[in-house]
Amino acid sequence: MKEKILNQLQKFSKGMFVPVLILPIAGIIIAIGNILTNAKLAEYLPFLKNPMIYGLGKMLSGSLVSILVNLGIIFCVGLAVGLSKKKKAEAGFTSLLVFLVFINAMNIFLDITNRLAPKDALRGTGQTMVLGVQVLDMGVFLGIILGIVVAYVHNRFCEKEFNGALQIYGGSRLVFIILIPIAVLLAIVFSYLWPSVQYGISSLGNFIRGAGNFGVFMYGTLERLLIPTGLHHLVYTPFLYSPLGGVAEIGGKVFEGARNIYFAEMADPNVLRLSASVIWDARGLSKMFGLIGACLAMYHTALPENKRKIKAILIPAAVTSILAGVTEPIEFSFMFVAPILFFIHAVLSGLGMVVLNVLGIRAIGPNGFIDFLLYNLPLGIDKTSWPMFILVGIGQFVVYYFVFRFLITKFKLKTPGREKKGNTKLYTKKDYKEKAKGNKKSENSNFAPIIVEGLGGKDNILKVDNCYTRLRLVLKDSSLVKEELLKDETAANGVVIKGENVQVIYGLKVTSVRKSVDEYLGIESN
Length: 526
Hints:
Strand content: 5-15%
Mean pLDDT: 83
Keywords: Cell membrane, Kinase, Membrane, Phosphotransferase system, Sugar transport, Transferase, Transmembrane, Transmembrane helix, Transport
Structural class: alpha+beta
Number of strands: 8
Active site: 467
Domain PTS EIIC type-1: 3-420
CATH superfamily of the domain at 434-521: Glucose permease domain IIB
Low-confidence stretches: 422-443
Shape: globular
CATH class of the domain at 434-521: Alpha Beta
Transmembrane segments: 20-39, 59-81, 93-110, 130-153, 174-194, 310-326, 332-356, 387-408
Distance between the termini: 28 Å
CATH topology of the domain at 434-521: Gyrase A, domain 2
Subcellular location: Cell membrane
Number of helices: 21
């Protein structure tokens, strides 16, 4: 039972990447729009005073903010596409239709049961307008629920065909036919059930926020501790896109979730200082600073004869963490050989967020230095206190360095570069040189047979998938996995085995790795 639950959570986790990884793009565009309409910046760059440029900035900010108030439909379509196994485009289109059926069915049922609140006084009633239709305010949870339901029905019936006159009603049309009564029934059920859920969510959010710095610490620590399972974003997503992360009225509109509030405040020139809810999106502190200190400690504690090799391994991993916020290459370099370091890393990451909260720093820092610059600099110091974020980050770098160095030397931990015999746990020097030459396509193609061999052979592989940084697989027999082969010969940063589910961490190049494996196995990539 435990394995089945974990399997389903991993599938859900993978599906969530579709909407979750798209939304930050909206934030970046809003940031660009804010730069183009920044009055202080225009004093130094006169061309920004041009009406066309200013208008473009307003257009970018305004149009992208509209996404934030319609997250339900974004998650509905995104999850349906992410969780569907075949005919993903049809699944996405069907989910859009089901979403429309649901909100209209709920509106009608609330009307006939005399439970619709006055349209001009919705604040505090638990109701809102979605695509011009008044319904209960289910926010992003509506999209998640409908996305899962659509994907489940789609996967079961999307290839069901009929003969004769009924042939036209097969496939995706049958899926929609089945989903119509389901959507109507769900609308009726949730019209009674959701007010209690709303109360529960509000109470949980109030409890966590009421816990103050302890709540922030637990949030930041748990988010890192779940990295090995690939489920860490299930911790932060509700805080970023639901009432758990806060509720605020900005520019006459109500926004739920830390990131939605932040993006709205970023686009509103009348907001002089960002809300405290931004702390839930400050997870990038350890990515940009702390883990870099850990890398330096691992380098300085490596054996003299291994330092050259370990430098080639750690530098690209550190740069990736700083710029893009991808931390697996570093974390998996010490996670399995020295679990205590990973636990300490999670604790220090949570403590770093507590320091930001105590000092009242309002800078956002989710995914590396590029995002940090785009999000914070255009808003100015008064609105974000971004220089203090960097100062705290430097302090965290120092703490990580001395704590990691002390633990590695005190307990003689076998972190990369401290092995007297055997291979390193990350990239070999040969792999690093090949990568530096830019021959990624041929490299990944050469790796495909070795990857398949490391997974127990073609006949042992039931399913191949991937997320942002991991190759995700379902195997017949996970005991056949050759971890050392995958790490030493294919530049895998780590291997996670949970029953029949196996994850091989390759970082940002995982998409090309997945493609080469699919081609070698003779299957079509989704």
